[in-house]
């Protein structure tokens, strides 16, 4: 468009008015053909973005609104497994009971817990051993009667996300999720709307009245908007984390926590119904970053203590994982930087707003944010009332 604009300018100088008119019409047609105008753009189709869209689908004032979730990937399986805390279940149940019950059905119950050193020595305190045994026996008995209960449930991140996506499409149609769309530019100069540019199958420009940034820890919205803190919002925890899923290795309901005296910790637990086991390993930060999953695996092996035989459960889980993911642990700088965005029509939610240590509460906070935005929409009398910047 800017190239065409420059051409218009050059031709205008030479007085070729007909060419100017035709070129201007071309520009207009081009803009109309490529720009999509919507009310609410949700950036990121992770648990937060999808639950937020689901929450908005319940608000009367948004029934005729144009809402879309833009997700960079294709929703193919990725990530590892998570457990959703009690607060998370309350929030997602309040957002949509049906989605909560379908997510619950994807969870593997954890019926036993143990603590070990990385080389497999038991660290479970003696009094706890008996209690753990009794609790696990109780869960086994319940299972005989068809009741699948546990201390908690674990789900693959992919199952959580695809269940939410399925439910959202049921409520708002297939087009509500635009996959394969990567946010590449944000222009917030207009007072009435924010212009977003996406790459993907084709370049697309979207004009939105409200933008909800649910695009994770390294939020593209936060990095692309001038004046925002970008990744300065993040505090480096000086830890690397590796994760994976071993589809053919089952821990039979057991979750094992590992630690050593050199700042390493680990976890192996059921991945989700029929999905084998999931594991994570945290160690002092490894320099640089892995270029691909094979390099991630090599870097993780190098970060393990030398000269010991790794606990058999952890070893089987690692070796049974086709892919190893590597991240650096970062958290939000909770003391500096405002919670609101400097652009009034934009709000950060989920990990984009408050990345945490992996304490098992990240998804809960994402669902609570979704519920809160849904409540704001439910309180608004009209679409216009919801789309005013003051709401955010
Ligand atoms: C090691 C580890 C263990 C964890 N364990 C747990 C646990 O047990 N329980 C728990 O509750 N939480 C856990 N978490 C945290 C949890 O995964 C997150 O809090 C949760 O996924 C946040 O959801 P979200 O939707 O805000 O962000 P994300 O899940 O990060 O989703 C963001 C989405 O935005 C998309 N996106 C990114 N950039 C763009 C772009 N430019 N354009 C379009 N789309 C984009 C991404 O593809 C992604 O789908 C853990 C995290 C880690 C690192």
How do you describe this structure in short?
The protein has 392 residues and is of the alpha/beta class. It is built from twelve helices and 16 strands.
Structural class of the secondary structure composition? alpha/beta
Q: Main beta sheet: strand number and arrangement?
A: 7 strands, mixed
Number of structural units classed as domains: 2
Q: What ligand species are in this complex? A: flavin-adenine dinucleotide
Helix-strand sequence: HHEHEEHHEEHEHEEEEHEEEEHHEEHH
- Kindly report the average pLDDT value: 92
Secondary structure tally, helices: 12
Second CATH tier, the architecture of the largest domain: 3-Layer(bba) Sandwich
Q: Which shape, going by the Cα principal axes?
A: globular
Give the tally of β-strands.
16
Helical percent range?
25-40%
Give an overview in words:
There is one protein chain. Strands 1, 2, 7, 8, 9, 10 and 16 form a 7-stranded mixed sheet that branches. A 6-stranded mixed sheet has the order 5-12-13-14-11-15. The chain has a 3-stranded antiparallel sheet with strand order 3-6-4. The chain is of the alpha/beta class and 392 residues long. It is built from 12 helices and 16 strands. Strand 8 and strand 9 (194-199) form a beta hairpin. Helix 3 (47-56) runs parallel beside helix 11. The mean pLDDT is 92. It folds into 2 domains: 2-78 and 158-229 and 337-391, FAD/NAD(P)-binding domain, CATH 3.50.50.60; 112-149 and 235-332, D-Amino Acid Oxidase, Chain A, domain 2. Flavin-adenine dinucleotide binds at residues 43-49, 70-73, 82-84, 88, 157, 182-183, 214-216, 220, 241, 243, 280, 327, 350-351, 358, 360-364, 366.
